[in-house]
């Protein structure tokens, strides 16, 4: 491994390594880093990788919808197709390759034990329309996980069917709406602090509420005075992210909840960051009425790149009667059954309805329960402690070279937040992020949260070793120094990736989404 250059900027490079940068190849490949054209450039529409019998000339029912021209899709042989996607996969970055410091996403190691359990035939091959007596094992997994989530959060009930965090937010707000309508109270406003996740106001608007913003204090937390001053008979509730997007614990959440309840509203907590407090804080004890838990973040399942996710919503005693169908219920003989619409009038008459066709994300349920049982109560407590310890190690290791806006507000939770304040003229967060690619890291979350300009949100997670964190901190320190000095090579990074820097504005405003020969 190259040592960090004592002068501060980049790893020391031998003379031979310097010469290799100028080497060109006939193929454009650079050893194991292979250039890969598009599928349309490899194949052609007049080729086919398999043999089909001539189709008989039979009438069809498509009528005017029958295709008038060929699809013009490229035909490839099987090895051509396999090699294409394998080469592309080698240009990707993954959590199994190295540290993935993407803030607010909790990109941590996925234990292989959980994957093995999820792939057991009794879980992986079940069908949602199977008779319930043939899937008792799967139903018991859902029921057992539901009890764990209730115990870990100190809540009264849980809706297991929401399939992602934002889906869970919608579930919680629909519960609040149902509870208010049940008492004939048509409130219109949801309060959302600046430090909340960006999906919160979007979900509230989607649910038909008018969203009003609540400012943050100078230390990055909810302005309690501003929030309580806005409470009134038109406020249905508040959506608070805790720990919030600045990586800070909302210490006044119980005070806020008491004030909201006194005003007749409900408290929704965005629990996407539950991995920072699991085993240590029960949101139910803080007065929370509804909170989604991202199983794919807190309990370590494959995450990122579009899913799959799972967002069960735990509910207080006040909101549990309004949760959605279906849900599992354990019988006196030990079996588990699903409570569906035909049972609702007698068992769950006030539920707001149904959010999903079936029972939720079975693969996520099995992984989450395997993770919980393999860690145990003491292991889960250590998970959150290690996540917070690692984030504070990163924060204190970088705060002398990167501006940490809330560094003086005390220890952070699971995320460390920095800004590009102090960089040379013309240099920004984007340049440092691109430099990380050359160093072999996925960039952190950039320009979020929006509470100040040039944000860099780093979430190291609990699964990184001290050696891994030291390497990351050393890299970040090197890049920060280069940005402060105005190194022109950083301004044009990445130089060592398969592709160079895009024109970000052009790519966003005029993306090329269609291939043309």
Biggest sheet character: 7 strands, mixed
Number of strands: 12
Return the string of H and E elements. Answer: HHHHHHEHEHEHEHEEHEEEHHEHEEHHH
Instruction: Please count the helical segments.
Output: 17
Shape: globular
Radius of gyration: 26 Å
Instruction: Give the integer mean of the pLDDT values.
Output: 91
Order of strands, main sheet, comes to 1-7-6-5-4-2-3
Q: Could you tell me how far the N terminus lies from the C terminus, measured between alpha carbons in angstroms?
A: 44 Å
Structure description:
The structure is a single chain. The chain has 517 residues and is an alpha/beta fold. The chain has 17 helices and twelve strands. It has helices at residues 15-20, 39-42, 78-90, 112-118, 121-124, 136-153, 165-182, 199-206, 224-230, 253-262, 295-298, 344-347, 362-398, 429-438, 466-485, 488-491, 504-509, and strands at residues 157-159, 189-193, 210-214, 235-241, 266-271, 290-293, 313-315, 327-330, 336-339, 416-418, 445-446, 456-458. Helix 8 (199-206) links the parallel strand 2 (189-193) and strand 3. Mean pLDDT is 91; it is low at 1-15.
